[in-house]
Model the fold of this input.
Amino acid sequence: MREFFLTKSKGIFFLLLLAFFWEIVSRNKLISPLYFPPMSKNLVVFYHLMLDGTLPLELVRSFGRIFGGFFLAIGIMVPLGIAMGLFRPIYNLFEPLTELIRPLPPPAIIPVMMLFLGIGEAMKIIVISFACSFPILINTMDGVRSVEPTFVDTAKTFGRSRFEIILQVIFPASLHQIFTGLRVALPIALIVDIVSEMVGALNGIGRFILVMQRSFNIPEMYAGIFLVAIVGYLLNALLRYLNTALIGWHKAKFETVT
Amino acid sequence: MIGQTIKKLVYDTRLSGGLLLLALIILWEILPRYGILYARYFPPFSTVMGAFIEGIRSAEILRHTAISISRAFQGYFLAILIGVTLGTLTGTIRWLSDLFEITVELLRPMPSVALVPIAILLFGTSDNYNISIIAFGCTWPIFVNTFEGTKSIDTQWIETARVYGATRLDLLRKVIIPAALPYIVSGLRISLGTSIIIVTVTEMLASFKGLGYFIMETYNAYQIPQMYSGIITIGIVGYSLNRLFLIAEGRFMAWHKGWTAKFV
Done:
């Protein structure tokens, strides 16, 4: 604990200094306190909105969309990526199509989806899963291709069927790379969720922030933004933790062999 | 014989993929025409292309494209300036990285679009609004890559340069920056794509010019073929910028392979 504070103390100090600077500058009206209310005020509002359940409720709604789209993308793109990585004809069939769609900024398809699906949950889930699709697909494909051929040959020698080899050898061996794709995709899901809520939604954390700005409830707006920052930070930390947990296992099982 | 040729085509060429694209385009043309897809929402391919060509001819799409690209580039170059400077400073000076670490860790995973309302308060709907959000979003990949790049330098190189009497500035200019350049370049490539995404988003949310605005405006006005033509244009812009970057990278970074290979 003591070591933690020794190494992090400068960073924490700097962060507090920034907050303090914000407080002073705003209180002395050096910048418009209407746009930048004192930090203490923002934090108090944040605290109250968290306690009375307003922000957690919006967050739960957003999370439903984020993870809905995220897992939909995993469900479609991981099998497709494995198929494209393993079978040349399938790769040839889908590669031109994916190359053509990939450069499209995902938020650009929001209006199309709004035409067909309105501003409900389906629209957001589809847009989010579209945005998550390509990092997952490409990393799965790479992962499958980089599996050590010895593993596959060994499994073949022991008379495993094709299906068993995919399920028991190729999939676990490429899991590390697949996870890299998921790690790239999850922050994208958060961003696209906020965008789609700002463009067309009735609730959710992105909508909350925008509505608070438009109705000039500025401390509430900052409270929403703080929550998004914290969520982004926690998701990032979670992914990092899961990654080390996963890599440790992966290393032990696959990298000592070679 | 024919069987072999087909097998070769299926395995070695992307003919099947081309055919799939063609089939999809034909379906896109036919399905709305026969009312299987609602033509109002999903106009036939030829109608969309007509709107696209009309938009190019009347220079409307070109005008919006030019505005979007200009905003994206202004934000992007600002991000390069901030990202490379901060990345090099924190990568080479220990106490600076200690100082900034937690703040960076808090700000970096923050979705840039969450800052849109603050930027609107500050800048209204002027170009500075788009540019500031783009700069924020594009800074992080460049910053992190520059930081990693300057950290990963072999200390032998620095010591050798010192032995030969290099000053701090020499070190930076002739050793640290060139050695970190491949990392920086990969950060630049990620950010270029990000800049196009963010410019679209910010224009969709609050702007009166640019491709993102064009898409939302035609959507609201129910000019659906025009909306699709705007989306196609953004796709083309994103694709070509990425291509251009890769070409430039191939040309200007070719030296690096030979350079590192000789010394490592």
In short: The CA atoms of residues 90 and 96 of chain B lie 5 Å apart.
